[in-house]
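Much of what follows relies on a compact textual record of a protein's fold. Think of the row as the fold of the chain written in a discrete alphabet. An example makes this concrete, so a full record is given next.


***
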Amino acid sequence: MTHPAQTKQQTDQPDAMPEAYAAFLQAYPTYSGTRLLDEWRETEYGRLDATQQIYLDYTGGGLYAESQLDAHMAILKTQVLGNPHSANPTSLAMTDMVEGTRSAILHYFNADPAEYIAVFTMNASNALKLVGEAYPFAPGGRYLLTYDNHNSVNGIREFARGKGAEFTYVPLTTPDLRIDEAALDDLLAAGDPAQNNLFAFPAQSNFSGVKHPLELIERAQKQGWDVCLDVAAYVPTCHLDLSRVKPEFVSLSFYKMFGYPTGLGALLIRKSVLGKLHRPWFAGGTVNFASVQARGHYLAHNEAAFEDGTVNYLNIPAIQIGLEHLQKVGLDTIGERVRCLTGWLIEQLMGLVHENGRHMMRIYGPTNTDRRGGTITLNFYDPDGHLLDYRRIEELANGQGISLRTGCFCNPGAGEMAEGLTREDMLAGLAESEDMTLPRFMQLIQHRGNKSAGAIRISVGLATNFADVYRFMQFAAGFRNKTNLNIGQVTFDIESCRVIRDGS
């Protein structure tokens, strides 16, 4: 029988790996309790080892299991399903599946249907856009958000700005990149309870992996604030119990949780806030009645008012299949595996030093597993303390079948705090031109003091095993005593958090 830590790919590793694995199990004995995930690695995610891939980008997107595809394809192959919300047989069959999945989502998050609705969206970003456009920002009201929000949360500030509301950022503490709770309390107290005020933060940072306290939700609400909670990076490995914490808005993407389907997310809205939301337009499916000649309309109630046009109905049943897949193994099991692998990775990375004793890298955020997830963001440095080009490191990782992520991760605020970038640094970049890109800004900022304008992010998830992180550590150790001259020039650029290849 194959050892739980071994696969076809892993048997090619040097003899040092079994010894390292034994030491790992001694340091993290609870890892043995996640053995079912080793079985799934072979039966559900065998394509990883068949193609010799090391996947370390779970914060970017989860991986789907083979059984999820089989179950969804069985539905599509055996049933005739039409556009929902009509009275014909195929439409009614699809409507039952859509509404059954909606109920399953609320049940999964322990959200009382009398208290919450679930709106299907294209992704978490689309969910957040719905919040921004419908929230009643006005002069005298405030939008408060943390430095380490995703850009889709940052973007809500433009709705606030356009309606005359003030927006303010809560700083992070360094080096752990946690919310400065004293500053937060002051900013919450500054809001006028008679106005509409919205506080937005991530349950888990997609930059640093920090898990922010969910107790902040009630703290803000007691001061008269509504709360928008981004859980996209949190719910793949952690429970969200909406009977215990009750934000007004919750945004998520399902592919982050279980890989398939893409193109579907959800916005959970607390019914108590529905009365003050106002959509600036209407579309097919969002109205109960509309007239061209009378030039008026009546918006539909509850989730129908927010689902523009026809929902992605054929893929919606795959959501319930994915949720049931996670429930088979349990989030506690997934979370514990992620904690063990993350803890070992951080310890090993922090132990890497050059021949002259200088540390080879800097980790942004906590350097232990306390209140943090499986996301580790870092940069490599040469023996003289000069930054190694993270784009070249990604390129070299690609050559070894290692999938990691580099750049800004659509989280500029956390990066600015982590890398010590000042307001003056950022204004210098904005002042250059509208054609400013991340590579150009990286060059500018290095000239201003050897700072970085991006980083490397590795993240582990439910299909990660010890051999994956061990192989990454072998790759990382290969930069000992290396300089930018040694590792070579990068041959591609990331222009704006997107890679576009000619001819593709």
